[in-house]
Specification:
about 120 residues; mainly beta; seven-stranded mixed sheet; 11 strands; about 0% helix
């Protein structure tokens, strides 16, 4: 079993920055895929950014140039640096890890961007 613990959410003004962290623990050899998703009220959960164990990254068009995903393989931790935040970035952000055929989720962390 794998557990994901997120931290770093909060309230920030538009134009500000936040850094999210997600630490994976449990029976882990390696995590091929880690990512951040978000879900705003009334919307579906959407992919924000992802990173493979070889550091290949993918970003949603809406965050390209503003967000940066990175990971520390030795500590099974993934980060999301969010800069130039906009009110439309307000959502609950979820960490995701995929190992073999299983997908694991964190409990979510609220990010609120005020205008």
């Amino acid at each position: 079993q794998v557990q994901l613990a997120e931290s770093g959410g909060g309230l920030v003004q538009a134009g500000g920055s936040l850094r999210l962290s997600c630490a994976a623990s449990g029976s882990i050899v390696s995590i091929p895929f880690m990512g951040w998703f978000r879900q705003a009220p009334g919307n579906q959960r959407e992919l924000v950014a992802s990173i493979t164990s070889r550091s290949s990254t993918n970003y949603a068009d809406s965050v390209k140039g503003r967000f940066t995903i990175s990971r520390d393989n030795a500590n099974n931790t993934v980060y999301l640096q969010m800069n130039s935040l906009k009110p439309e970035d307000t959502a609950v952000y979820y960490c995701n890890a995929r190992i073999d055929v299983r997908s694991y989720w964190g409990q979510g962390t609220q990010v609120t961007v005020s205008s």
